[in-house]
Amino acid sequence: MTVPLPPPNRIYLLRHAEAARAEPGQRDFDRPLNEKGYGDAEIIADKAADKGYRPDLLISSTALRCRDTADAVHRAMGLTLDVRYVDVLYDATVDNYIEIVDAQDEAAVMLVGHNPTMEQTLEALIGQKAMVKALPHGFPTAGLAVIDFDAAAAVWRLTDFVVV
Predict the structure, then answer these.
(1) What are residue 110's DSSP bridge partners?
(2) What is the full per-residue pLDDT of the chain (164 aa) written as tens digits?
(3) How far apart are CA 122 and CA 116, in angstroms?
(4) Rounded distance between C-alpha atoms, residue 129 and residue 157, angstroms
(5) Contact 45/90 with Cβ under 8 angstroms?
(6) Engineering a disulfide at 81: which of 77, 88, 128, 153 sits with its beta carbon 3.0 to 4.6 angstroms away?
(7) What is the per-residue DSSP string for 93-112?
(8) How far is CA 61 from CA 67, 114, 160, in A?
(9) Helices then strands (H, E): number in the chain?
(10) Domains in the chain, please, with CATH?
């Protein structure tokens, strides 16, 4: 796995908000957010917008819970935000997440995806030590990691971690 170099200069990793349990016969892919999840998605999107965290491009898994979370971000950031849905993010590896980010030319890219891949991607970008220090209990639902490229040191650094 190769860690990407800019562009983008900023990466946002947003884990989908809390999902409902699967109904009998329902596929995992089709689980929507639960009531708490809908509220948390709106809150995290508003917090990100209030902090000026606005991606140039939002790339979301096509799973319903991710689309629901991405919709909240889209509403908070304004309808001009470019949103793309990518099937491979649903059952992706860290390499898939990194490759998708690395293929973008925009300055700031947001991925809306799933754990454990979201947590593993953050760790791949900032290192295991920084990951454990920042998130000792793991990557929570509706958690937003803001990662910036430090050109002087040629490394990615966690700038902020926004939670509900």
Answers:
(1) 12, 58
(2) 677 777 899 999 999 999 999 888 888 899 999 999 999 999 999 999 999 999 999 999 999 999 999 999 999 998 789 999 999 999 999 999 999 999 999 999 999 999 999 999 999 999 999 999 999 999 999 999 999 999 999 999 999 999 99
(3) 10
(4) 12
(5) no
(6) 77
(7) -HHHHHHHHHT--SSEEEEE
(8) 7, 8, 23
(9) 5, 6
(10) 10-162 (3.40.50.1240)
| 115: its two tokens | 């754990």
* Tokens coding 161: 């971690």
Q: How many CB atoms lie within 10 A of CB 144?
A: 24
Amino acid identity for residue 99 in this structure: E
Phi, psi (degrees; rounded to nearest 5) at 84 = -125, 145
Instruction: With beta carbons less than 8 A apart as the criterion, state whether 159 and 52 touch.
Output: no
Contact 147, 157 (CB under 8 A): yes
What is residue 6's predicted lDDT score, i.e. its pLDDT? 78
Amino acid at 79: L
